[in-house]
Amino acid sequence: xxxxxxxxxxxxxxxxxxxxxxxxxxxxxxxxxxxxxxxxxxxxxxxxxxxxxxxxxxxxxxxxxxxxxxxxxxxxxxxxxxxxxxxxxxxxxxxxxxxxxxxxxxxxxxxxxxxxxxxxxxxxxxxxxxxxxxxxxxxxxxxxxxxxxxxxxxxxxxxxxxxxxxxxxxxxxxxxxxxxxxxxxxxxxxxxxxxxxxxxxxxxxxxxxxxxxxxxxxxxxxxxxxxxxxxxxxxxxxxxxxxxxxxxxxxxxxxxxxxxxxxxxxxxxxxxxxxxxxxxxxxxxxxxxxxxxxxxxxxxxxxxxx
Length: 306
Ligand SMILES: C[S@@+](CC[C@H](N)C(=O)[O-])C[C@H]1O[C@@H](n2cnc3c(N)ncnc32)[C@H](O)[C@@H]1O
Ligand SMILES: [Zn+2]
Fold this sequence. Notes:
Layout: H1 9-16, E1 23-26, H2 33-40, E2 46-51, H3 54-63, E3 70-74, H4 80-86, E4 92-98, H5 103-107, H6 132-138, H7 141-152, H8 157-170, H9 176-186, H10 199-209, H11 212-223, E5 227-237, H12 240-255, E6 274-276, E7 282-283, H13 286-291, E8 299-305
Parallel strand pairs: 1-2, 1-4, 2-3, 4-5
Antiparallel strand pairs: 5-8, 6-8, 7-8
Helix pairs in contact: 1-2, 7-8, 7-10, 8-9, 11-12
The chain binds S-adenosylmethionine and zinc ion.
């Protein structure tokens, strides 16, 4: 059973302004919750769903099997433009990114995303690339510090990285429990009140393993040129680091001008290419947060191509 409750479902679908004859991409199909709502609004339109996780692809295919005009493809979303080219799709009306991991991935112990259950330290959303164990056992202390600091603002980044390097010299770190315990040991008692000490380190490693920030940056860059004028990009983020990145990338498209801020006048003459659909990011209402704790940190940002 694939279980995942879609976040900001109606807000996102409304913001995409689905046209029944449009071509849409759900770049993060997961359990197919958002995809399903898009699919029901199409008549002659088409929906291309992507997910890098073969288990999600299977679940989304099941969920969408009644719709002839939907297809689910196993791919990283940074390759959206290539996938569409292969399908001979030249332009799209809208695309959605519901970032991060699904509840299914988090709750499947063997995937190694969670510090609550003991499992091999994997954390790959797909089945390619290095695992978290490989990073933890091979990167230098400086590289690990950087990951913990940049991807999660971990205040004890350096201390934890040193402890990892010290520990792995005696015995490789292979499991979620080994890592969670090591991180907890690095935390002073008085900081242990703010949730599990390993939360940030696990988030940071997951981002590094899956190159999550590179993926979304490249995806928006490569998809924007094939978005129709009036077409929309919707992104749901779940933590401040990815949200800041999307906010900046959207702001740059809406500003157009790329001149350094200290230039007195614009010399690049670049015009704005998009506009913000909402003044502020959309967040979950009280009721949704009550029903689904994961929605607490969700932020929806949407731009429309001019
Ligand atoms: C939050 S879930 C999406 C849930 C979905 N919107 C729903 O309603 O069921 C995120 C999904 O995106 C996938 N994903 C994350 N990063 C990806 C990437 N770079 N390329 C492709 N899929 C990715 C994950 O494997 C996961 O299944
Ligand atoms: Zn300029």
